[in-house]
Amino acid sequence: DGYNSATGKLSVTETKSIDVELTPIEVIPDPELSEKVITIDFGKDYGVSTSSYGSGTFTAEGITFGYERLKSYHTSTSEKYMMFEKNQNAMLYNTTAIPGKITKLEVKTTAGCSANAAYYISLFTSEKDVHISDGTKLSGKSATVTLTGTESDNFSYFNISKTNNSYNGQISTIIITYL
Question: What is the pLDDT of residues 25-43, one digit of tens each?
Fold first, then answer.
């Protein structure tokens, strides 16, 4: 408190102490930023031939997939899966973008598949409808491979290509996590 001779003004400061009660707030996550999951379970019938290997498209969980040299395999008592033909550049890929950026892709083989069947799996920023011969390799019975990406990677597509060896491949489930 005091007089300022340079400005000719008098200043007064008053100090008070008050009690304040803080109320906790709930943080609600933005649904646009929350992870979402699409599970493609090949135990379901997506209209892919069960009698012969073929090429075409099918839609699952709102996403269209393309395939070459695959057939759906369903038995009444055992596993159900998508079978990749041996020695034939068999592959599975999405033709429409995942509705966000892929942060994780899990691909699972069956317990009944050959331990020697192998696949290359990769994530892409645009559709990849050609057989790939590099990427993360998956092989073995009841095996799972997980690929990861970040939102800034902008991955909205993937490709699973069977290596051209003499073993049929069997994929049971694909789980796609995205933002």
Answer: 777 766 666 899 999 998 8
Least confident of 9-18, 69-78, 101-110: 9-18
> Which neighbouring-strand residues pair with 145?
107
Residues 165, 169, 133, 94, CA torsion sign: positive
3-class SS of residue 151 = helix
Nearest to 146 by CA among 111, 170, 121: 121
Number of neighbouring beta carbons within 10 Å of residue 77: 4
* pLDDT > 70? residue 78: no
Nearby residues of 63 by Cβ (< 8 Å), 6 or more positions away: 38, 94, 96, 98
Q: Average pLDDT for residues 120-134, to the nearest whole number?
A: 95
The residues near 89 (Cβ < 8 Å, ≥ 6 apart) are 68, 69, 131, 161, 162, 164
Q: What does the block give as tokens for 43?
A: 């135990």
